[in-house]
Design goal:
The chain is mainly beta. It has one helix and ten strands, in the order αββββββββββ. Strands 1, 2, 3, 4, 6 and 8 form a six-stranded antiparallel β-sheet that branches. Strand 3 and strand 4 form a beta hairpin. It is elongated and about 85 Å long. The termini are far apart.
Length: about 140
């Protein structure tokens, strides 16, 4: 019986100590950037205010951590606009996975409806991390 009480006391004192705090990780995404727009057919750069109707665009994105490029991270592109007309579509999907340089691209095709939209790129690992660019 005494042995049982000693073991019980030893276990209670061993478990009474709080666990140490986990160190903060700096491996998560910290910066997202829209590098630019390129014509998907010719691979030439396209200015945001010079997008023509029917133009297939590659929206080039980059994601970084405190230590360098975020490799293998997911990015998602969305569109905000003032009305409900469809101005762009994403034939290959609205997401991409970053390569070893922390970059990826998403194909967006203009549908032919004129108007201003805002592209917003968002990190899938950190939904609060986003960046936007207006396209006229």
């Amino acid at each position: 019986m005494t042995r049982f009480i000693c073991i019980l006391v030893a276990l209670a004192t061993a478990c009474a100590q709080p666990l140490p705090e986990l160190p903060a990780s700096d491996d998560g995404p910290t910066q997202i950037e829209i590098l630019g727009l390129r014509d998907a057919a010719s691979d030439l750069p396209v200015e945001p205010d010079a997008v023509f109707v029917g133009t297939p665009l590659r929206v080039q994105l980059a994601l970084r951590t405190n230590r360098g490029p975020a490799i293998g991270s997911g990015l998602q592109l969305s569109i905000q606009q003032q009305d409900f007309l469809q101005r762009f579509r994403f034939p290959e999907g609205d997401g991409c996975t970053t390569d070893r340089t922390g970059q990826c691209s998403i194909l967006a095709v203009s549908t032919g409806t004129a108007g201003t939209v805002t592209f917003t790129a968002r990190s899938q690992a950190r939904p609060d991390l986003s960046v936007s660019q207006e396209i006229v």
